[in-house]
């Protein structure tokens, strides 16, 4: 089945030149002391905010400088049809950028900023799903000064095709649903999921998935009988196996570190997260591909915090340190979208427990993708929808075509989507009850 058409609209290489006032004035802005930022808007999409570097007025933007991504918008087929409608009343789409001086407010982002000016970039998106296009690359005046002394903004705006495979769970992961591939109005079953408890009497394939080769110096599995295992407030042993249509297991997500309430509380803390191992078949055994940690954030956000890292065996086995591909927070109440997108923030990957980037962007014309020999992921990788607590969740998963060479590739991302969805339940306050499908092991174990 063919993938679904998607397009990435990318805004990069921002820089600002502001004339220095010859006399002190309230409206004067000195490039060396005034921080700047911008709000980037595309109709029907959430606005994005980015810092805008200031450069001296006499400088030119250097040729060949590394492209730094400021914002990205992902358009599906419905978005493209809406923007390219044939109606004479339909307005042509455009990208709108508002530039501000001053520091961003701590809560609302722009409260303390002063508007310097606005820039609009027209977009012709017809046929863009099959070809790349640059809409603007260079300097543009900001403001209405007709004498040539206005501020100037440098930016690159381009679009590129980004086809994706789209999968939809037909039910909640803990209910062992089918997974369909979606292409337009066509729904085709491609996987089945089997949820189970690793510590129950069911010795299925996922129970045997932990017979891994001891090739890593880092221990990814908890020791049995640990203090975490003895804790009275814990959720453990969840496992979900993804099968292809022939019934063969092609991926596993298994809870390898229990989700345990912090001492004196009812929540899983960031300092003591639960963890999943995502495994793929290889050489007659299960091999680790990724590790997902999750916890419950404190404070006003009260969200689901997570970190996903690529395992050493999956990035060439050159180091025991994992490569962090995603780390963020999702609303526990509203849910959101789990995303792995290496085109964000310059496309740099950061090794776990390290402050240095694993992928240097130097010399790359495409946001620093994949210069390190074992960085296999670049640009948009995958996303998965997630509902808030207590809501029916049927994850919709998008995976870039570049990341899928075989069934097992797609299955690994489906297993990861199931794990992040189940983490919303695993991180619920321990004062709240889980649905019966997630508590069955308590009866089996007599607890």
From TrEMBL:
InterPro entries documented for this protein: DUF1005 (IPR010410)
Basic and acidic residues: bias regions: 225-237
Positions of the UniProt region annotated as Disordered: 200-237
Coiled coil (UniProt feature): none
Transmembrane portions of the chain: none
Composition-biased stretches (Polar residues): 200-220
Entry protein name: Formin-like protein 18
Source lineage: Eukaryota, Viridiplantae, Streptophyta, Embryophyta, Tracheophyta
């Amino acid at each position: 089945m063919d993938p679904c058409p998607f397009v990435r609209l990318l805004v990069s290489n921002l820089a600002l030149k502001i004339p220095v006032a010859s006399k002190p004035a309230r409206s004067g802005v000195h490039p060396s002391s005034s921080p700047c930022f911008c709000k980037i808007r595309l109709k029907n999409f959430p606005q994005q905010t980015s810092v805008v570097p200031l450069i001296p007025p006499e400088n030119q933007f250097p040729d060949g400088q590394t492209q730094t991504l400021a914002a990205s918008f992902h358009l599906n087929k419905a978005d493209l049809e809406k923007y390219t409608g044939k109606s004479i009343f339909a307005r042509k789409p455009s990208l709108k950028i508002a530039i501000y001086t001053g520091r961003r407010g701590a809560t609302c982002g722009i409260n303390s900023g002063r508007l310097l000016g606005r820039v609009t970039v027209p977009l012709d998106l017809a046929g863009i799903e099959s070809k790349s296009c640059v809409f603007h690359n260079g300097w543009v005046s900001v403001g209405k000064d007709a004498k040539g002394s206005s501020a100037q903004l440098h930016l690159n705006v381009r679009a590129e095709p980004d086809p994706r495979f789209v999968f939809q769970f037909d039910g909640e992961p803990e209910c062992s649903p089918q997974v369909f591939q979606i292409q337009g109005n066509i729904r085709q079953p491609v996987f089945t999921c089997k949820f189970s408890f690793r510590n129950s009497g069911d010795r299925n394939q996922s129970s045997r998935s932990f017979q891994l080769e001891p090739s890593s110096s880092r221990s990814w599995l908890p020791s049995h009988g640990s203090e975490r295992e003895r804790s009275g407030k814990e959720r453990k042993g969840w496992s979900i196996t993804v099968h292809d249509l022939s019934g063969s297991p092609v991926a596993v997500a298994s809870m390898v570190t229990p989700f345990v309430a912090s001492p004196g509380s009812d929540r899983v803390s960031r300092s003591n997260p639960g963890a999943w191992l995502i495994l793929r078949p290889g050489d007659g055994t299960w091999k680790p591909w990724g590790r997902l940690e999750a916890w419950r954030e404190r404070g006003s956000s009260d969200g689901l915090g997570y970190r996903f890292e690529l395992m050493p065996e999956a990035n060439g086995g050159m180091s025991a340190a994992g490569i962090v591909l995603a780390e963020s927070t999702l609303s526990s109440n509203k849910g959101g979208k789990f995303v792995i997108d290496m085109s964000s923030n310059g496309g740099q990957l950061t090794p776990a427990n390290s402050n240095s980037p694993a992928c240097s962007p130097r010399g790359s014309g495409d946001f620093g993708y994949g210069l390190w020999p074992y960085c296999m992921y670049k640009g948009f990788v995958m996303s998965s929808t997630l509902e808030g607590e207590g809501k029916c969740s049927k994850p919709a998963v998008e995976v870039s075509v570049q990341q899928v060479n075989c069934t097992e590739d797609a299955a690994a991302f489906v297993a990861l989507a199931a794990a992040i969805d189940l983490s919303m339940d695993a991180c619920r306050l321990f004062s709240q009850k889980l649905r019966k499908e997630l508590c069955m092991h308590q009866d089996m174990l007599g607890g």
